[in-house]
Design brief:
The complex is a heterotetramer, with two copies of chain A and two copies of chain B.
Chain A lengths: L25 H26 L13 H8 L8 E3 L5 H7 L3 H9 L32 H18 L14 E6 L6 H12 L4 E7 L2 E2 L2 E2 H4 L15 E6 L3 H16 L5 E6 L18 H8 L3 H11 L5 H24 L18
Parallel strand pairs in A: 1-2, 2-3, 3-7, 6-7
Antiparallel strand pairs in A: 4-5
Helix pairs in contact in A: 1-2, 1-3, 1-4, 1-10, 1-11, 2-3, 2-8, 4-11, 5-6
Chain B lengths: L1 E4 H15 L3 E5 L15 H5 L4 E3 L4 H13 L3 E5 L10 H14 L9 E6 L14 H5 L5 E3 L4 H13 L4 E6 L7 E4 L12 E4 L4 E5 L1 H18 L3 E5 L2 E3 L3 H11 L2 E8 L4 H12 L9 E5 L9 H7 L3 H12 L2
Parallel strand pairs in B: 2-3, 2-4, 4-5, 5-7, 6-7, 10-11, 10-13, 13-14
Antiparallel strand pairs in B: 1-8, 6-12, 9-11
Helix pairs in contact in B: 1-6, 3-4, 7-11, 8-9
The chains are: A alpha/beta, B alpha/beta.
The complex binds thiamine diphosphate (2 copies) and magnesium ion (MG) (2 copies).
One magnesium ion binds next to β4 of chain A.
Chain lengths: 356, 328, 356, 328
């Protein structure tokens, strides 16, 4: 029987005295910063080319990169199952998707990685990296993640997999927005994870809005993490704009999953610094002052300031990073633009897999 | 008479019904201050306030299920599903509950509600913002299924739907929201549910269609009339369930040739039912194979625009099909 | 914002010092006993005639009558909305359905109350008593109840109903089994009830099994009531075999709803003393010793013993009740048997309501 | 060869596949110690234990959704839905997820899973334990839909379904579970998905059917052969999606008359698709109106037995329809 852990809900860092993030090397910290920065720059470029009328749609991760990069640095990338949602740009960029891949998806060009340009951008997916294909109906992926975590437990229980074999997936991590936890799909997935105590991590990126609908019209509790106890799942709240705090809780949840000690829900409190998508106009439903206030909590800035305070980063280095990012993004955009569109007829592709 | 687009006509119809009946309310995702992601409910929150324009949680089954409960309790809910692609979580409530309530209760409990959803492709929406889902509901006795193709019909039919004592699915072509314009009388009128409309008279063949494709079918019919002298009759079904089989058959008796056009995929799309009716009740008038011009049987409209264009029907493809059939 | 009331979960009686049930008169207490007894006898007869091959299906309330009768005696019957499930025989018998009505439904005879014999028995419904028509897919009704409670709040807010007008419905009460809370439908209904703080009562009749599946395979928490907090709904646990304890918590929840103070989940811990239905064989999944142990906690016996101890009931009176019940049940059965079947063609009835 | 009923054949097919592939597992409500409410999985819990026969929570969408996840992770789930009537909560997972996964991922992620559900009426199940739901799924490209009518086919097809790399809906006539008996070879054989079976040769007309109704159609065909000398060809579709249009059309070319029989309601039932195909590709062979003999368009099979009998098709009604069509 699972433990009820409402009272264990953590604020901020998992273990105040000795934190997993303490042992991150300078190189790793700078790499994490770099990944956040790169994602941000790719994302900003997407907004720009949308304004230029070059692409028809973009949906953004800006403001939510911290928990995503933290997730990437705590799981076994390329091996563990990643079941993302449309805002997980930073996560998938860490996992092996390239800026060029993403640009190609924005333009809907031939050979697009996730779907051969059949899907809208940000419907991530990459079989080689064990990133599951994303759809649009929210929360459906959480059930898949539970099923994949179930498969891990199944293989271990039925002796098809050695629990300590690190070449095999040992957990499934998924994410979704806070609004999407209103779906029955989320309830049922969490329940399976709880009943079977699966190696499953559900990251709720609570950015306080589901398009225009604020969280208090979505649920009558202050925290999504409060809901975890209903499933016998541990719920943890973390400052989603503090990448090191995110690293700590993710590290905790990942190690727990690897040990076979069950599922975790991580609620990363964060903010979507952009409109919902390029189709949205957020001025109809939120005050500019609120948006501005959150700009000060920008996770990228925060990490930069932290690393600078620690003497690990300088403005010159940042400038170098920015230059490098610009180059990568320029090249990615150019490559995507130069690439042909898929021929119209390629729409008619096999609907069924062949037996092999 | 005012010229307006499809979206404005739907909004005006709802607005008039809300004015006239305090039991009518709207719920769904982002229908409030945001005015809906397509702006169909724009201005209604300001006019009717948060007690009648209710932003729901992000949860379609309960948008519909709560609507059913409210309807059972004698309110008149209008439930907006943000995209038809997201109606699937609510299928249990729609098919097992709303559709069956009246019959299963021996005709005592009624579910007077409207479920609105934008449907259809051609807007860069990919697999999950382009779906046509009418066929599922057209197979479900107890539901009514409406798809208007003109602003006039849209206003008249949304008003009828709101007043109808049964659960009504009301699908709106998102591609046509702003594209399709037309005259709409001010104030009160309704268009009856269950009546098809002969949108264009013709003698050579009949094109059966609805929604955006009916709009395109009209364009195609005009074109072939001018270029080839082919006179296609165009039947805009307007209501799929209950279907106006009388109008469907009458036109066929006249023309003997049928082209059925929809943007939903071919197999088990609504065209199958039209074809089946013609092949039984219209047998003696059949002058040619019944043709269906539909989307291919793939799992959705691809995103990338060349593939989207390839997938989608348009007036040119319809005109070509009309010519082929006329030449049979 | 709703209150989080995990810590307020009550065990047993709502207010230990002064209990609402203390003010029940002898007449009412005996009436409640009578209703439980009558339901039991009707139910037992159903099993008997099923064994005799006279009917094809029965699903039972035996063992679960206490919370149902308690609900009936605390709400405004015939006015408040009742959204029952298939085990609510005792509840609907209190609400106006007669033993004869029920017998007619068992036999599927002409003019059957809930559905004109279109539905299986125990798919309750009676418009005149504001009992909503029941389907079979579990948990769907909870969403309807939320919608009906929403309609009450809507009418009050939009000045279509005076909140103190007792001729109008002032709450919606629904019930379901503990297993059915695994459904997404339940999650979404509870969430609406919480977000809008609706006059809504959800009675979970936790009989420890969903057909053969025990509750620990259904959820990873010991109590369904623990799940209420996730919705900002107060959750209360009650001994579902103690009709007076049930009365106390129901009274509390009903008065709260009438005051506009929001929703309540009541988990009545009980036991299904029969197989799931006449199609079931419960020996495949539960020990006889367990069944026997619960027989000693039979709510009917318990109330009898309590009333006897209080000097309110004697064996002679019980015998009289039993005789009266037998007569009613005999007559109901006879009336049902004598009644004709509906003609086959009556299957083809209107599918659509006409505008009026 | 062993004689067994439909239910035993399905069980044997699953049992063999579980023996042969450790990735195959079964989940659903009461599939464990209880052996399923119809006893289809009886004995498998004892044989394979709780790690491979898994009693699920009472929650269809996650029975399917978890199955999808497990399939993505290279297991081979068999998900049992207790009654087809309760599949609706899972429609989002089936239609939006399972069906679209392969295409939407550019052919990289596959969902090798089977969803089994008993369907159909005539067992006193009323509106909610009698439904036929195949039409919804037959409209969904990416799914395969199978409905066997004989024990031989049932075993061979369930084995093919389990091995298939795509999501397969496998509907089982609950009325026929114990009623339909036949020879089933011991051990390994499969029946290919996507092939209809000419169950009876005939020259006067073709009866198209599947599941329980195919069984009845055979009885009706034998009867009219004896009583009226009418030789009806009976095509048992077996797979609805993808449909074996070749066999469907070949038979029609021979007979020129079609009677389509299913217990699902008429409008937009699968018969519509067959009729539509015949009315286009079989036009030149049509000797009579295409006939559909189906359940009426009401929201379900009524419980009370005279109404149930009135609602349900049976060999007599089919024989009558054969005679009428033969006489055209
Ligand atoms: C089932 C479903 N309903 C509606 C939508 C339309 N939609 C897309 S994103 C979104 C809001 C999601 O909010 P949240 O879960 O908080 O995630 P966020 O976008 O804020 O990260 C909505 C309503 C959808 N994609 N799926
Ligand atoms: C959606 C759905 N799935 C499956 C069933 C079949 N079924 C009927 S009752 C039942 C078990 C219900 O258990 P629980 O909710 O605990 O209620 P109880 O019968 O124990 O009172 C099941 C699985 C159903 N009616 N609806
Ligand atoms: Mg959000
Ligand atoms: Mg139970």
């Amino acid at each position: 029987m699972a433990k009820n852990t409402t009272d264990k809900v953590r604020n901020g860092r998992a273990t105040p005295t000795s934190r997993p993030s303490d042992s991150l090397t300078k190189d790793t910290l700078l790499e994490m910063y770099w990944k956040m920065l790169l994602s941000r720059r790719v994302d900003e470029r997407a907004w720009m080319i949308h304004r230029q009328g070059k692409i028809v749609f973009h949906i953004s991760a800006i403001g939510q990169e911290a928990i995503q990069v933290a997730a990437a640095y705590t799981i076994h990338l390329g091996v563990d199952y990643i079941v993302p949602y449309y805002r997980d740009l930073a996560l998938v960029l860490c996992a092996g998707v390239t800026p060029e891949d993403f640009m190609i998806s924005l333009y809907g060009k031939e050979g697009e990685l996730s779907s051969l340009a059949r899907q809208m951008p940000s419907h991530f997916g990459a079989k080689p990296f064990n990133i599951v294909s994303t759809s649009a109906p929210v929360a459906t992926q959480v059930v898949h993640a539970a099923g994949m975590a179930f498969a891990i437990k199944y293989r271990i229980q039925n002796e098809l997999q050695d629990p300590n074999d690190r070449t095999q997936p040992r957990l499934a991590v998924t994410s979704l927005g806070e609004g999407s936890t209103s779906q029955g799909e989320w309830h049922e997935a969490m329940n399976w994870a709880g009943v079977h105590q699966l190696p499953f991590i559900c990251i709720v990126q609570n950015n306080h809005y589901a398009i225009s609908v604020p969280v208090d019209k979505q649920m009558a509790v202050p925290n999504v993490a409060d809901r975890a106890a209903a499933y016998g799942v541990e719920g943890i709240i973390v400052d989603g704009n503090d990448v090191l705090a995110c690293y700590d809780v993710m590290h905790y949840a990942v190690q727990k999953a690897y040990r076979g000690d069950g599922p975790t829900l991580i609620e990363a409190k964060t903010y979507r610094m952009t409109p919902h998508s390029s189709d949205d106009d957020d001025r109809t439903y939120r005050e500019r002052s609120e948006v501005d206030a959150w700009r000060d909590k920008d996770p990228l800035l925060r990490l930069a300031n932290h690393l600078k305070a620690q003497g690990l980063l300088t403005d010159a280095v940042i400038e170098g990073y920015d230059k490098r990012a610009r180059k990568i993004v320029d090249e990615a955009q150019r490559a995507a633009e130069e690439r042909p569109y898929p021929p119209g007829e390629s729409a008619i592709a096999p609907v069924y897999a062949e037996a092999n | 008479m005012a010229q307006m687009n499809l979206l404005e006509a739907i909004r005006q119809g709802m607005d008039e019904e809300m004015e006239h009946d305090p039991r009518v309310f709207i719920t769904g995702e982002d229908v409030g201050p945001r005015g809906g992601v397509f702006r169909v409910t724009q201005g209604l929150f300001e006019k009717y306030g948060p007690t009648r324009i209710i932003d729901s949680p992000l949860a379609e089954l309960s948008i519909v299920g709560v609507g059913i409960g409210a309807a059972l309790a004698d309110l008149r809910p209008i439930c907006e599903i943000q995209f038809a692609d997201f109606i699937h979580p609510a299928m249990n409530q729609i098919m097992n509950e709303a559709a069956r309530m009246y019959y299963r209760s021996g005709g005592t409990w009624t579910v007077p509600m409207v479920i609105r959803a934008p449907y259809g492709g051609g807007v860069g929406g990919g697999l999950y913002h382009s779906q046509s889902v009418e066929a599922f509901f057209a197979h479900t006795p107890g539901l009514k299924v409406i798809i208007p193709s003109t602003p006039y019909d849209a206003k008249g039919l949304i008003k009828s739907a709101i007043r109808d004592p049964n659960p009504v699915l009301f699908f709106e072509t998102k591609k046509g929201y702003r594209l399709i314009k037309g005259d709409v009388p001010e104030g009160e009128y309704t268009v009856p549910i269950g009546e098809a409309r002969v949108a264009r008279e013709g003698s050579d063949l009949t094109v059966y269609s609805y929604g955006m494709m009916a709009h395109y079918a009209m364009q195609a019919a005009e074109r072939v009339s001018q270029t080839d002298g082919i006179e296609a009759e165009v039947v805009d079904l307007r209501t799929l369930l209950p279907l106006d089989t009388k109008t469907v058959l009458e036109s066929f008796k006249k023309t003997g040739k049928a082209l059925i056009v929809h943007e939903d995929n071919l197999t088990m799309g609504f065209g199958a039912e039209i074809a089946a009716i013609l092949a039984s009740d219209g047998f003696e008038y059949m002058d040619a194979p019944i043709q269906r011009l539909c989307a291919p049987d793939i799992p959705g409209v691809p995103f990338s625009h060349p593939m989207q264009d390839y997938f989608m029907l348009n007036p040119t493809k319809i005109a070509d099909a009309i010519r082929d059939l006329a030449a049979y």
